Amino acid sequence: QAQLVESGGGLVQPGGSLRLSCAASGFTFSTYRIHWYRQPPGKEREYVADISNTGQITQYADSVKGRFTISRDNAKNTVYLQMNSLKPEDTAAYYCKVSLSGNRNYWGQGTQVTVSS
User: Fold this and answer.
1) Which residues have a Cβ under 8 Å from the Cβ of 27 and sit 6 or more positions away?
2) What is the DSSP letter of 32?
């Protein structure tokens, strides 16, 4: 059974930084692309970024491009999301996701990021 566990969220002032982690288990991590999504309060879940299985290809939502960096360490079965220059509108629950063969999607439980002075 695939499992994803996010960590690293918290309260940060505008302009600050946080690094989120997504620890994976139960599947061959180095084979799969991993995605980050977020869900702001009262809104739909939205795409943030994703990274290819090797880490060579990354993609970002326009709203975070230039401020967030996604990376992975296949030896540690972990994906990271470095978030810099945080804004109040980045406040959300952040989730990682993997889509395994057969269109099976697995999500973590989420980690809360609050950007406020």
Assistant:
1) 2, 98, 100
2) S
Residue 2 CA to residue 32 CA, distance in Å, equals 12
- Cα–chain-centroid distance for residue 20? 7
Q: What is the pLDDT of residues 12-42, one digit of tens each?
A: 999 999 999 999 999 999 999 999 999 999 9
How many angstroms separate the CA atoms of 16 and 107, rounded? Answer: 26
Q: What is the DSSP letter of 27?
A: S
Q: Which of 108, 85, 64, 67 lies closest to 12 in space, CA to CA?
A: 85
* pLDDT reading at 107 higher than 90: yes
CA dist., res. 90 & res. 77, Å (int): 26
CA dist., res. 89 & res. 103, Å (int): 31
Dist CA 9 CA 51 (whole Å): 20
End-to-end CA distance of the chain, in Å?
A: 40
> And the tokens for 38?
């977020």
Task: Decide: 47 and 37 in contact? Cβ < 8 Å.
Answer: yes
Alpha helices, DSSP H, located in 44-88: none
